[in-house]
Amino acid sequence: MIGASVAYGFRGISMNWLARSMAVMAGLGLWTIPAQAQDAAEGERQFGRQCVSCHVVRTPEGEVLAGRNARTGPNLHGIEGRVIGSVEDFRYGDAMDRMRERGVTWTEERFTAYVQDPTAWLRAALDDRRARGKMAFRVRDPQAAADIYAYLETLASRQQAERGN
Fold first, then answer.
1. Which residues contact residue 137 at a Cβ distance below 8 angstroms, ignoring those fewer than 6 apart?
2. 80 near 112, Cβ under 8 Å?
3. Which one, of 63, 164, 65, 152, lies nearest residue 114 by Cα?
4. Residue 160: its pLDDT value, please?
5. How far is CA 37 from the centre of its chain?
6. Considering only 31-40, 53-62, 108-117, 135-144, which range has the smallest mean pLDDT?
7. What pairs with residue 13 in β-bridges?
8. For 63-91, what is each residue's pLDDT tens digit?
9. pLDDT tens by residue, 20-34
10. Three-state SS for 13?
């Protein structure tokens, strides 16, 4: 019967739930998933397809590096190392406010897990099954999430290089 439990999930646990749980655990740093090569050019394409309608990448000086004047989601400029839920003048939900209060910062692992399932990630990170994210959209492909992150990092690196930092 081992084959039957594998074919139908582990004792009633769906494979979809198992995959989501693994992604959340990886995002929290509780489990390491082998790194895949990131493609910033593909990340730019994916950002244009999946993120641009809600997000912008705007420098503190006001220069738009990517996106339009979207205001549904926060500015994604300089996300690496930034405290989660800390973009000035953006109204976050309660769960993201709690992440900010805890001083949790964005890393590649947290970002990619979050964008794949924001509410599930917040519930696991806060250990609160009622936590909810305001971001309803999900980047369904883990590779696309990693590529988007790589693209955002190239924008930050490019700006630093232009400034001479």
1. 50, 54
2. no
3. 152
4. 59
5. 17
6. 31-40
7. 10
8. 999 998 788 999 999 999 999 999 999 99
9. 655 555 555 554 444
10. strand
Whole-number pLDDT of residue 156: 81
- Specify whether the CB–CB gap between 66 and 148 falls below 8 A: no
Tokens of 161: 């290089």
DSSP labels, 117-161: -HHHHHHHHHT-TT---S-------HHHHHHHHHHHHHHHHHHHH
**26 contacts 127 by C-beta, under 8 angstroms:** no
DSSP secondary structure letters along 49-96: HHTTTT-EEE-TTS-EEEE-S--SS---TT-TTPBTT--TT----HHH
> Around Cβ 122, how many Cβ atoms within 10 Å?
24
Would you say how long the chain is, in residues?
Answer: 165
Closest by CA to 114, choosing from 88, 91, 148, 90, is 148
Indicate the SS3 state at residue 43. Answer: helix
Three-state SS at 105: strand
The CA distances from residue 163 to 4, 44, 84, 107, in Å, are: 60, 22, 25, 23
